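ENTRY TYPE: protein
CONTENTS: sequence, structure tokens:
***
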Amino acid sequence: MSTHERGRTEHGADGDTWSAPHLFLSGFPTELPDRELVKFRVRLFAMLGDVISRYRPGPFVLSAGYGVPPEPLTPPSPSPRDTAAPETPAFSTVEPLYTFDQLVLPEETVGRLLDCVSLVEVAPLVFDTWNLRSIEPHPSTAVNFRGPPGTGKSMAAHALAHRLGRRILSCRLSDLESKYHGDGPKNLAALFAAAAEQHAVLFVDEAESLLSRRFAQPQQAAESAINSMRTELLMALDTFRGLVIFASNLPHSYDAAVESRLLHVDFALPDRAARRRIWQTHLPAELPVHDDVSLDELADVAEVSGRDIKTAVILAAVGTARRRRTAVTRDSLLTALEEQRTPPPAPPEDGIASPLSPEDQESVAARLRRRLADAHTGPGADEEDTRPHA
């Protein structure tokens, strides 16, 4: 490629001054004599410079050659999928599904939730009338519900929204992530904007990754994207005026900057008294229940969550209806609960399953006998049979 730069200041045909552009010329065959090439360049640049100085056109490319000119290369038209800008997800609110009276939680947890409600209710008095807005221009109540799955975190979020007379906007981290780099923070900002515009309680479920510590030296694009979302979260929490609720199932090392902005509410598995109330709540009066069902006996089964109890009631009721029985029995509830809360066995390290103990063999045999007996119970069975069944 050959270049030639005219003087920094040129005079046009009308006498004024202007900055001449850089001129370039490329593509000369290497077998031509250098002297002839120099003459050609000088003459061509002189004529091209005169045209530009006189008419001052916009930037353009001038091509020259020998033989049949090649067809201009036109880039393929990009597909709509490639040209369309990624759409920001639409966030909408719903009416709360639960009330505060439906919560079955320890008194300490209930008191902590009422404190969160009070922080929102007294905000006008504290920040406006008492002028604490002078030291905190954008008061925000950010709460983190942490505890095992099925302990009522989502239900409590809906109950708080109902208590405050607001709608709730729920989302998960997967709703904010995007295949487009940089769109995660934009989606997070849009989420907070939607909650503010609709004056709703914002509930972010499964927020472990969003609340955890930022990567000091991100090695992958995904780590950089998570860091950007966490930074956007800090800015959103500092400007959002309302109630934000996060829910996390696993203990995490939270980012120090995020944790300093959070009020933590711990959720635990229900104790015996709470389990009895949950069983009672989940056995409605319309559900036919056998006389052998005892709330005290059901409440004796420990290490279960409220979700486990709800699922057990549903499975037992479905099994009762499928087998054309007249009532849900004690054994059907206990069996469904046991199967719900028992984790699957871990695979052996050596890949060889250990033999069953005599007690386990007897338990398996008893279950098989019950399954076979249930299989023979068909539409022709006695519909008034109220014997206990598993």
